[in-house]
Amino acid sequence: MQEGINIFEEDFWAISDALNRLLQGTNARAVLLIDKAGQLITSTGDITGLDTSSFATLSAADFAATSQLASLIGESEFSTLFHQGQREHLYVCLIANRVILAVIFDQRTNLGLIRVRTKSAVAELEKIFDAIFSKVERESEFPKELDADFTSAAEEELDKLFGF
Amino acid sequence: MALINYASREINSKIVFYGPGLGGKTTNIKYVYTKLQPTLKGRLISLATELDRTLFFDFLPVDIGTIRGFKTRFHLYTVPGQVFYNASRKLILKGVDGIVFVADSQIERFDENIESLDNMKDNLRSYNLDLNKIPLVLQYNKRDLPNITSIEELQKVLNPENKYAYFEAIATQGVGVFETLKEICKMVLKMLA
Fold first, then answer.
1. Which helix (H) or strand (E) holds B181?
2. Average predicted confidence (pLDDT) for chain B
3. Which residues are within 8 A (CB) of B135 and not within 5 positions of it... i.e. 6 or more apart?
4. Cβ of B14 and A37 within 8 Å?
5. How many domains does chain B fold into?
6. Residue B82 — very low, low, confident or very high, per pLDDT cuts 50/70/90?
7. Mean pLDDT by 10 residues, chain A (164 residues)
8. In this complex, which of A4, A149, A155 lies closest to B4 when CB atoms are compared?
9. CATH of the domain at B145
10. Disruptive mutation site among B132, B189, B191 for chain A (greatest number of A CBs within 10 Å)
11. How many domains does chain A have?
């Protein structure tokens, strides 16, 4: 199996703090953190009416497709993407080569500010994720919450859900 | 690459439906979507061509409830089966936790199943993934059609050591769809523990 991402309490709050600072510092509408496999890690800001699961999946797909385009022209990766809409815009960049940061913003701010503030947030988040990934490598530090009891509880839940 | 968030108590895993073109991968996911109650499912996204062939992927998030305090969710993806979309197929396999291989039982599609399974192994290898370590379930689809290969023959080429669970299916009618899904979900959650 590929290396998973395990996020523990203190890392989660450090990530949330960094995202909130970015949100406030840029006046963006929302900031989302997504893993490269398309799963939403967390978000902050106004996500009212936004289907975050779909957003996360499509952002990851967008990034993956664009990376392939990059390699076709001899680049290893496009580290940032910008999508301009009529009212809402999207700025996307990569953290520690594994996590995608998406900033949704409108006319209350501007691309220059988003770009500058995102750069420093990425540096901060990179440190946090480097620490998270090195913890994942030291598996012995995992809390043992997902044990055999978890497996049997999961099987019961699946039996109930699928009704057979 | 399951995402386990101990702070928000969430587990997200990725299941990919792989197999030859027109084999029934999208049909599986669409059936799950139509039958699951609204509280358990998110939006079904299909990035398809105008002719309804999968271009990039289909995506359906499914919540299976809270297990030992963890909100547990599966993200179901299909890959485009057509041979020339391999770049897309490879991208979708990124971070996969479990695979359902949907084989087409029709005699004339026999070779395409083998080619697709080989292609899947190649793509997994490119991510340094070993099929022996990733949960895999086989689904022999289209069992209602007249000109089909026997299960024994399919097993002989696709599952010669009988290592993987398999299900017979008629995805258009929902036969075997939830049985397949349940098995792969169980196997993926078992890998987490």
1. helix B177-192
2. 94
3. B97, B98, B99, B184, B187, B188, B190, B191
4. yes
5. 1
6. confident
7. 75 95 97 93 95 93 90 90 96 93 96 96 95 75 69 88 77
8. A4
9. 3.40.50.300
10. B189
11. 1
